[in-house]
Specification:
The protein is an alpha/beta fold. The protein is built from ten helices and 14 strands. The strands form three sheets. Strands 1-10-9-4-8-7-6 form a seven-stranded mixed β-sheet, with helices on both faces. Strands 12-13-11-14 form a four-stranded antiparallel β-sheet, with helices on one face. It has a three-stranded antiparallel β-sheet with strand order 3-2-5, covered by helices on one side. About 35% of the residues are buried.
Length: about 325
């Protein structure tokens, strides 16, 4: 595993503020029969950060989250949430952790308002009307669970997970099935919770969502964490390819080959190059266009996206045991 930022400090000799570790996982392993799903995961999550959890289908993301919240028992390894073992202290887990998993169910005939009242009573707190409003559930208070759409059930699940103001909020594909307005509302609520000090683990397939929301990310492939770091740190590692997009009025670049520039595609009249030497690549392109008396319509330099880096790591891992 590549750990870009070298882990989290709990204390230093200079008297600086400690970084409180909310979740610590060491050597986590889980097998289903002969199938090894998790192969020794190690990661830490500090207080007040959004920690993105990325991986292709079958990578082990949901199994990891289920182990964290005590739904599955690990075969090996150690999990500590705010210092305690979730397997040994499930009641404390329920008080401090909010959980929204991909698959959840309530009695078919229970009403939205009844479910919220029940969970509020269970956690010993009042209803959080602002959360209901933010996720557009006010108008569904009298609706029964069986009548809700997939997106509405997801919104209800999120509301129930956040009712007791948990210190740690675990979200597994929270925006799946949500409409645009609900997605935006949820993103705003996640940011607001982080500002209040809530620690959030966000498992998602949406690369733009992960890049926009996460303070740090872990990329899980074939049961192993391949890389951790901030989104910018992750996208700047590896081959270091930078994308150069060029569109000119004339055809000065047609058929031109440039040493050190890899041309992988052409789209909407743009020549698209990849290079690890941006300055040299731009100089070669500029010279050719100027020498031909051509003019630029557009010239852009873009760093690799998180999705491109994710694909690169996933492809590399296919050949790694």
């Amino acid at each position: 595993m590549s750990q870009i930022n070298g882990g989290l400090r709990k204390k230093n000799s200079g008297g600086e503020k400690m970084e409180e570790v909310v979740l610590e996982v060491n050597g986590l392993r889980k097998n289903y029969g002969e199938l090894s799903v998790l192969n020794g995961l190690d990661f830490k999550v500090k207080k007040g950060e959004i920690f993105g959890f990325l991986g292709p289908n079958g990578a082990g993301k949901t199994t990891t989250l289920e182990c964290l919240v005590g739904l599955r028992e690990p075969d090996a390894g150690e999990i500590r949430i705010m210092g305690f073992d979730p397997q040994q202290n499930p009641r404390k887990l329920k008080d401090l952790v909010g959980i929204q998993l991909q698959v959840s169910a309530l009695p078919e005939t229970i009403k939205v308002e009844e479910a919220i009242n029940f969970f509020s009573f269970y956690h010993g707190n009042g209803k959080k009307e602002n959360i209901m409003e933010n996720l557009h559930l006010e108008e569904l208070k009298k609706a029964r669970y069986q009548a809700l759409s997939t997106g509405q059930k997801m919104r209800l699940s999120l509301t129930l997970a956040m009712l007791h103001n948990p210190s740690l909020l675990i979200l597994d594909e929270p925006t799946a099935g949500l409409d645009v307005a609900s997605r935006r509302a949820l993103h705003g609520l996640i940011r607001e919770l982080r500002e209040r000090g809530t620690t959030i683990i966000l498992s998602t397939h949406d690369m733009a969502e992960a890049e926009a929301l996460s303070d740090r990310l872990a990329i899980l492939v074939k049961g192993r964490i391949r890389m951790t770091g901030t989104p910018r740190e992750i996208t700047s590692t590896g081959k270091g390819w930078t994308k150069i997009l060029v569109k000119t009025l004339g055809s000065s670049l047609e058929g031109k080959k440039f040493p050190g520039l890899l041309e992988k595609e052409e789209n909407d009249g743009y020549r698209v190059f990849f290079t690890s030497q941006v300055r040299d690549g731009l100089n070669m392109i500029l010279k050719v266009v100027e020498a031909a008396g051509d003019e630029f319509v557009d010239l852009r330099v873009e760093r690799p996206t998180l999705e491109e880096k994710f694909v690169e790591l996933t492809e590399q891992a296919q050949n790694v045991s």
